[in-house]
TrEMBL record:
PANTHER family for the chain: ENVELOPE BIOGENESIS FACTOR ELYC, INNER MEMBRANE PROTEIN, PROBABLE PERMEASE
DUF218 domain span: 53-228
A single cellular component GO annotation: plasma membrane
Protein name per UniProt: DUF218 domain-containing protein
InterPro entries: Cell_Envelope_Assoc, DUF218, Rossmann-like_a/b/a_fold
Classification via CDD domains: YdcF-like
Positions of transmembrane segments: none
One protein family per Pfam: DUF218
């Protein structure tokens, strides 16, 4: 826009350039991105989790075993699969419900529920403890399809495992389905350590004002969640 108007409308061009720079600096510095992420992640901070009848693990954490991968890979959000295994070994629940399909245009491969099962069995979780739900393509479908499984098995209370930034929206959706759900978030992007780093030294405070692509990624993830909350609310899903 700025380049198209720089010759004919220099003031408009200058405004567009200034706005773009402000937007870049605002979304790519550690102060803004970390506090925006924290506003979501810290809504459900970990505590002593009670026992439940099942652990629900949401998809979005794996890459299928397509060449040249030798097996299923875990993404950044793969912490949720490991955390679910830890909860199972702590005897928090006797069953793991793995919910997630595979969107065709977003990376081909097997359903995420199957990929998660592959990872879990490879680290010693028995197959008998796993229930796969391979049809969900979004969080709303996760909740609807999991509710059907819970009703079939007369399961009343579940622990919900997903990334902390995704937990507020997920929790609202599952509660909308009248599921007795307890948040068990993991994969925290912002901890007290990251926040402390912002003010640890004057140099750190200044450096965290500089643009960084990792901060843009965090900002974008948080913004998508807030937009998702608005859209899901408008659709009556939460």
């Amino acid at each position: 826009m700025a380049f198209l108007t720089v010759g004919r409308r220099p003031r408009t061009a200058a405004f567009c350039i200034a706005f773009a720079l402000i937007l870049l600096l605002g979304t790519s510095n550690g102060w803004v991105s970390r506090y925006l992420v924290r506003s979501l992640e810290w809504q459900n901070t970990p505590s002593q989790l009670p026992n439940a009848e099942a652990i629900v693990v949401l998809g979005g954490a794996t890459r299928s075993a397509l060449l040249p991968r030798p097996t299923v890979d875990l993404q950044e959000s793969g912490d949720r699969v490991i955390y679910a295994a830890q909860l199972y070994r702590q005897k928090k629940a006797p069953l793991l419900i793995l919910s997630g399909g595979r969107i065709e245009w977003f990376g081909k491969g097997t359903p995420e529920s199957e990929d998660m099962a592959t990872i879990l069995t490879s680290i010693g979780i028995p197959k008998e403890a796993l229930i796969q739900e391979p049809d969900s393509l979004n969080t709303y479908q996760n909740a609807v399809n999991v509710r059907k499984i819970l009703e079939q098995r007369n399961i009343k209370r579940v622990l919900l495992v997903t990334s902390a930034i995704h937990m507020p929206r997920s929790l609202l959706i599952f509660q909308k389905q009248n599921i007795d759900v307890i948040a068990a978030p993991t994969d925290f992007l912002v901890s007290t350590g990251e926040l402390g780093e912002l003010t640890s030294t004057p140099k750190a405070a200044i450096l965290n004002l500089l643009p960084d692509t990792s901060y843009i990624d965090q900002f974008t993830s948080a913004l998508k969640e807030y937009i998702g909350i608005v859209i899901y609310r408008l659709r009556g899903w939460l």
